[in-house]
Amino acid sequence: MATGTAQISIPLEETTGSTSIATDTLLSAMLRAHGQVSDLIFSPGRVPQIEVNGELIAIQATGLRPLTADDTRRIASDLIGSNKQAITALREQGSCDLSYGLPGLARFRVNVFIQRGSCAVVMRVIPTAIPNLASLGLPARLEEVSSFRDGIVLVTGPRNSGKSSTLAALLDGINRDRVCHIVTIEDPIEFLHNHKRATVHQRELHSDIPSISLGLRAALRQVPDVILVSELRDSETVEMAMEAAETGHLVLSSLNAADAAKTVERMVALCSAHEQANIRNRLAKTIRLIVSQRLLPRKDGSGRVVVSEVLNFNGQVRRCVGEKDFSAHKLVQIVKAAGAEGMQDFDSEIAKLVRGGIVDSDAAQMHATDPEQLRQALADLR
After folding, report:
1. What are the residue ranges in the chain where pLDDT is below 70?
2. DSSP alpha helices (H): ranges in the chain?
3. Which of 103, 126, 149 is the last residue of a domain?
4. Which of 40, 220, 246, 319 has CA 20 to 30 A from 96's CA?
5. Burial code of 96-126, b = ≥16 C-beta within 10 A, e = fewer?
6. Do 75 and 156 fall within a single domain?
7. What is the tally of structural domains in the chain?
8. What pTM, to 2 d.p., does this model score?
9. Structural domain of residue 89, as residue ranges?
10. Residue 304, beta-bridge partner list
């Protein structure tokens, strides 16, 4: 990951040393350093850093010195405040997740963790406005999700690939289009959804519920039409998501997986070996759609562009997923052949970006599912 520097301005009375800079003042100044800040990082021995389009940038300001362990501990304390659950998690587990807001400016997903006996803090910037699918560069066909009445819709990809933004856009579409009851179970709450046509109740891990599984269990008694779970992390949440879908609910969630085929493999692998055949069959029947995404650097250096894979669970896909000898390669071939049905695979979409001059060939190879096959598909450009 590349590094650079960015100059910020902090009021003179705040610059007598990093320990005297109010946390909110520092956060606000760091956000102003660049128009596309995605993360803020505070680590002992380093000046504060921001991440912009995958590049770490060190913050420079008059009187701002490298942070000490006392500095990062104070920043962590200011962010955690009186959140007893976060304090307990940090003490007992070595890290905690929480949300934090600067009124009128930004919201953050925060992780505080212990390293070498001192605190470090990473803050993900959450846009105040809920994005739409078009602004995220995602296929218009995903608007169809708002018409689904049951089943599971998954947004997958590696960490920091924009899954939370896509889930928020899908949920906002349902909120805008349907008269229904939506319950979310989030860790932590990121985007704030106001009631539109739907009634929306957002529940946050630790603040509102003690665990994701208990929140999901309770949601089934809260007469929701739509349930959003921020992430499927274990066999219990996978099982409960399938149960909800089987009983007439629409479930939206995310999973850390490289592509649609790996999503299926990972969900099956989360369960014990003797349950996996049954799980494959249930997934084949309950999943409606998987959208996987990756972020690639733009050729002109102006930022990153999303590329997505869309897997619609038609009859052929359901048979493939339900087979005992599930083949990821076979699933990819089905997707490649089903473009007329709105499906799309990563490598074909990446090739379009290269041919359109948006992404260079080196970046394309690096992010491709099958680099050699992509190289051959673009051989005429050499």
Report:
1. 1-3, 7-20
2. 23-32, 69-80, 84-93, 133-136, 163-177, 212-219, 235-246, 260-269, 276-286, 315-322, 328-336, 346-355, 361-367, 371-377
3. 126
4. 220
5. bbbbbeeeeebbbbbebeeeeebbbbbbbbb
6. no
7. 2
8. 0.86
9. 3-126
10. 297
Cα 290 to Cα 153: distance, rounded to the nearest angstrom: 6
User: Looking at beta carbons, which pairs linking 47-56 to residues 24 or more positions away fall under 8 Å?
Assistant: 50/6, 53/297, 53/303, 53/304, 54/1, 54/2, 54/295, 54/297, 54/304, 55/1, 55/2, 55/3, 55/4, 56/1, 56/2, 56/3, 56/4
Q: Are 143 and 217 in a shared domain?
A: yes
226 bridge partner residues: 182, 250
Given a contact cutoff of 8 angstroms between Cβ atoms, the answer to whether 349 and 306 are in contact is no
Q: Which amino acid is at 357?
A: G
Judgement on whether residues 220 and 322 belong to the same structural domain of the protein = yes
* Domain CATH for 190: 3.40.50.300
Angle at 185 between CA 179 and CA 189, to 5 degrees: 100
CA distances from 62 to 16, 31, 41, 47, 102 (A): 9, 17, 19, 12, 23
149 assigned to some structural domain: yes
Q: Are 273 and 141 contained in the same domain? A: yes
Other CB atoms within a 10 A radius of the CB of residue 236 amount to 16
Token pair for 293:
């995404």
Both tokens of 285, joined, read: 């029947």
C-alpha 255/C-alpha 231 separation (Å) is 6
